Amino acid sequence: GPTYISEYYSQTPQKLSLYSWYGNARLFVFQVPENTVLLKWILQASKGKGPECQNTNITVHFRAGAPPVINPLQTKFGIDTVVLPSFNLTIPLTSAVQSSTTLNISNPVSGDWFVAAHLPKDDGKIEVKGFSTKCSYIFQPQMLVQRLINVPVLEPSTSLTLMLSSVDQVSHLKIFIPEHTVELTIHLKNCAVDTRPVESCPVFLLIGSNALPNSHLKIVNCSGSLVCRETLDSPPWMKWMQLTVQSSNPNWTITFEIETYLTVCEPVNAGSFLTLFNNFTLSSNDTVIKNPDILGVYVKPNNTELNSSGISCFRNQPVLREDVDVVSVRFFVLNGPDTPVTSEYPIILLLNLNTGRDNGGTIMLNLQLNKTSLSNENATVFACLSAGSPVMSLDVNSRSCGEALSWGYLLKMNSSVLSRSLQVPYPETDHWYLTLQILCSSHKSNQTCGKVSALVTVSAILNPCVGDCGVYGECRLLQAHGYLYAACVCKAGWNGWSCTDDTNAQSYSRQLLATLLLSLSNLMFIPPIVVAVHRYYFVEASVYFFTMFFSTFYHACDQPGIAVMCIMEYDTLQYCDFLGSVVSVWITILCMARLRSLLKYVLFILGSLLIAMSMQLDRRGLWNLLGPCLVALCIMITAWVFRGVKRRHCYPPTWKRWVFFLLPGIGAALIAIAVYGFLETKENYYYTHSIWHILVAGSVVFLLPPGKKHINLWIWKQKFTCGYQLCSDVKEDLYIVC
Questions:
Q1: Helical H runs in 648-717?
Q2: What's the whole-model pTM score?
Q3: Pick the CATH number of 158-264 from 3.30.70.580, 2.60.120.380, 3.30.365.10, 3.50.50.60
Q4: Degrees (nearest 5) of the Cα angle 617, 619, 625?
Q5: What residue ranges are annotated as transmembrane (predicted)?
Q6: Within 10 Å of residue 421's Cβ, how many Cβ atoms?
Q7: CA dihedral of 569, 572, 574, 577, whole degrees rounded to 10
Q8: 370-403, pLDDT tens digit by residue?
Q9: Could you tell me whether strands 315-317 and 347-352 are parallel, antiparallel, or unpaired per DSSP bridges?
């Protein structure tokens, strides 16, 4: 009997995020070995135990060959973007802390399998780093495979006798499909049940492998027909195809013979391409390629248009691949970019995608028909882009193209429609083929066309993102377990795979309003600057001016839309804004402590240096603001308590200072902290953060202590002939007299 072995694979658990763009989904990559007959997914999910951990659903997407193209937000794709819906399932996390879900897939396709998991839609709330109240949801996929050792190989045109019984109800086979195969025929014959010959064989024939979301598996019920024969057009080239025969009744012993036939068609006029190779010159370095093997093209010397079976052959159009960057490839048609297309046979162009490298981007195909070269205005140029093998039989009445085990994307051009475009995000790692042919009748036969020809300009590239995600998007390179892929993150209300969905897009006036509010609200720091100068706090006024300046231009540069103005690099503006904000809080509280000048300015400098270092380590850390605030408050409270004990009176001493200055200032600061920490979302950021600016600046006006009325620092009003000396005020600080 057959020998099976089981293998187990697992990956590190990851914390899930609410979904707002593809980068929020956690991507896992597994390798399914050859000859796997059963694939079992074990999906483990868990959540925290805190009160913030509510019931939720985890969505898991599966795809073989490339990352799944998902659309949880139900946004619109681009006009020329074609997407197959991903297979997904939902894991509910209710009262139980942990949940486990399994998914079985029989006869899975071998190679890379991708699993993507995410939480529901992001609510848009902005939370301070280190002060997050979000629950932790953990997800871990595990893969258990059962594969068969020594799978019988089915040779073409050779019969193989098999037997199914109650012990072995399934028989697994495989056959290798060579290049240029245009037809595969599988025939079951001489069937017998319990040694009794029967005309209808009670078995199921499974051809191909199972892949998600689009299945590369075809099921044939042989019990319902007298002749169990199945013919497949254009099976996947240069691959092992799985065949499974399964008994429809486990109590029967069934014997039968299985036989396969392959029809291979050599390319038309392939020998003439030797001249093309000899004449092809690379424009970059004027190097002549004379050996076709360098380009990986096998040329067969056959000048016939029909093979022995009467099936039309095709012509290979050589294509050169140029690697540009990560997930970035250009394809050049040799002696192109114009490609001659005819009605006599299909033209095939090979677009080769490397395994594990090129399926994280987007294939962008552009076709341009030369109208003057079209010899028949009623003719239509058909183009089909497919993976695995080219589509040989194009139908003029069909709205799609593809074969039994592959899916294709159809484009049509004529004298009215001269150009077409196609974008395929996350293409499967495989050989992709572009089939071009002219059809001009309502039937499959092209004989009514005669000899019609045309020139089509072919442009094919692999880009990380479509159009670099447009004006309102940013293309980001992501990584998962060493695998690189790209995705768009949209802004200013734009959505979609390539940021082309303007359903919730912000208008220009809305973007301009947000920029003006966030920038001009910083002008509320002018009153604190004036008050600080009036009370002779010149160092404090300088820091407030620094904060106002960089916060204004940082928010003018930080906007998501096109109403943006950057006077420096974004990172520099952000650093200076964050640094100025924290230093402003630090010096304001120290100023309220009314320390001696020498000690105060030492703390000013030392604290500013430590804050600058902390900002460099973690700019958005919670303790960057909380740490200086707590230290400064401790110093201020200590100083106030010391003065109160020394004077035997509450400090500050007057109730007016408390009622009209300290309490309003503290209240404004607390409201600002509440708005900043709990109310800000991505939708209301432009006005809630503006309120934060106004409240913080207003609190400084109330909290700055009164100046020293006996100090005269306007030195330039005195005569230049006077002398200067430092005198000590026993009550407060050092001051300068003339």
A1: 655-657, 663-674, 685-703
A2: 0.82
A3: 2.60.120.380
A4: 105
A5: 512-530, 598-617, 623-642, 658-679
A6: 15
A7: -130
A8: 988 887 878 899 999 998 889 887 877 777 787 7
A9: parallel
